Amino acid sequence: MADITVEGLSKSFRVRRPVAKGQAKAGALARLLAPRPVVELPAVSNISFAVAAGERVAFIGPNGAGKSTTLKMLTGILRPSAGHAEVAGCVPWQQRRQLARRIGIVFGQRSQLWYTLPVRSSFELLRRIYDVDRARHRARLERLARTFEICGLLDRPVSELSLGQRIRCEIAASLLHGPGLLLLDEPTIGLDITAKAALRDHLGELSRAEGTTVLLTSHDTGDIETICDRVIVIDHGRLLLDQPLERLRREFLQHRAMILVTAEEHPRLELPGVAVAAAEPYRLSLSVDTARMPVEKVVAAALAQLSLRDIVIENPPLEEVIKAIYRDGIGQKEISHATG
Amino acid sequence: MRRADIGALLAFALLGWHRAAADRAGGLGRLAFYWLILLIFWALWRATPLQELGRPGLDATRLFWYMAVTESVVIAVGFPYREIERDILSGEIAAGRARPLPYAMALLAEWIGGCCHRLLLLGAGGIAIGLWITGGIAIPFAILPAMLLSTAIAMLLVLLCHLQLGYAAAWVGTPAPLFWIWQKMTFVLGGLMIPLTLYPAPFARLAEASPFAAMIFAPASFLLDASSPAIAGTLGLQLFWLVVIGLMTWLVERAAAARFAERGV
Asked: A100 and B4 in contact by Cβ < 8 A?
């Protein structure tokens, strides 16, 4: 049974066109009185997909692609211009409060915790809001605090937490009432590499253990690989691709960029499947074909052969993945296949 | 509204109470300002030949206690509309709207809790300074329950106006200019410093019937006329305005919610 069904969902925003160049030179009153026609800006155009119960789906795209707008429609915060959606058995924009009890939501850049309160007090307020009985809340909090490693943070005010700590608490907060569906909007935005990795591991582990359905928006390909098993790519409001992670990984996420900073002035590293992208004094930029040579083997070889001062491993930027999707022209084919 | 929602609203009221209690600097600041205002006006009225007004019984002591009541409501409430303005402009309201409990109700409950704490603090402070300056309490014990009820309604009316002012940010961005207009109307038509009964007759009648009088003048008016018909009339008018302003607030909230759903936050 599908937890999320989306059919032909569209959203356009009506905005007033800015003052034209000629009008900008006129006086303030003239500018104020000048007619500014309303134009429709499409943010999401006719998208359709379904997410089955227990599935973990990444909804990815570059900034401004329409991910957050879609997620806001699925939570009932935004009303679509056209189309239909059903989330956890509710039509979101018609049954927003009912839906809120069945799902967990995390907006990476917005906080649902109370800034001046200790985390525990915020959780207690959420318990009252979601009407969770004390014993169940206590057990749930214990489990989530252990999973997200926030036991030591519970008595600290939210204002004193780092961004990584706060996001971990935010996700725990969204899961306190035991929702079967978790919607995450850019949960790792602004986090450093360590915090991102920890969060991805915790989230992946919990969703697998509890069978929670996850729909996650991100513009970071790293989020997708750790947590999700299916990927939907959106760009300019349109679905480009909907396929299992394995295929995306094979076709678009095969190469990793690796930068080695060394003590040697002219570092050299020769391995099958590893190409030198740039060689500079004390620095070597590599492109690793992970199908032929796993990243950990490259790191081990670099550690054995070179005196490393720093190492950076980068996922391919999403923009590159999307370029490749457009280049290969497989988007439409994959969507029609996925939606049947 | 479900029974659980009422429990959640009580939790928010308690949160407001605890937050006001924790804000010691803010509480003391309000109290100091309250005392300062009362001392200034006490000195002013002592220097004013009030007997020339031809209103027997309206002396400096009574005017002091009148103002102790009106100012306590205004100072206890403060500027809570800014919280909604901040949430709308920052987009944080999205998190509030994604919860099963209505955002406005939760916020109103929290404000009520905070105001109750501050009213208690200012009430105790007002009685202390009043005893020291005037040598007694000019509030008859018999009118105290009606006065407390009227103060509660007045506070609720002011808070509802703040909800509307906060939601105005959805349309105007910064509702400060609207707040200033509303605040000046409250000062003048609410009789914050001078009882409305001292205004010229037609203007006094107009002001007394306005919602602003229900917010400020009403609880203090019992010090000027403590007759049963006057008390009943004042409470009746306050309840009338509570229904009207409550309805207006509901409509403003609905309109803002529709706007957020259409345009996003």
From this structure: no
- CA-nearest of A188, A192, A276 to A225 is A188
CB-hemisphere CA count at 13 Å for A259?
A: 9
Look up residue A33 and give its two tokens: 């009185």
**CA separation (Å) from B129 to A113, B78, B116, B134?**
40, 21, 20, 8
Residue count (chain B): 265
Complex ipTM? 0.84
Tell me which residue range forms the domain holding B195.
3-263
Tokens of B114: 């905070």
How many C-beta atoms surround the C-beta of residue B22 within 10 A?
12
Q: How far B97 CA sits from the closest chain A CA (Å)? A: 7
Cβ distance of B92 and A78 shorter than 8 Å? no
* Total residues found in chain A within this entry: 340
Report the predicted TM-score, pTM, of the whole model to 2 decimal places.
Answer: 0.84
Mutation choice for B interface testing from A44, A77, A133 by most B CBs within 10 A: A77
**B91 contacts in chain A (CB < 8 Å):** 109-110
| Residue boundaries of the structural domains of chain A | 2-251, 255-314
Is the CB of residue A200 less than 8 Å from the CB of residue A188?
yes
- The bridge status of strand A238-244 relative to strand A230-235 is antiparallel
Q: Looking at chain B, which residue has its C-alpha nearest residue A101?
A: B100
Arch. (CATH architecture) of A2-251: 3-Layer(aba) Sandwich (3.40)
Q: How far apart are CA A91 and CA B96, in angstroms?
A: 19
CB contact under 8 A, A96 and B11: no
A319-332 burial, b for 16+ CB within 10 Å, e for fewer? Answer: eebbeebeeeebbe
* Structural domain count, chain B: 1
Task: Please write the tens of the pLDDT for every residue from A226-276.
Answer: 888 898 989 899 998 898 888 877 777 778 889 999 999 999 999 999 999
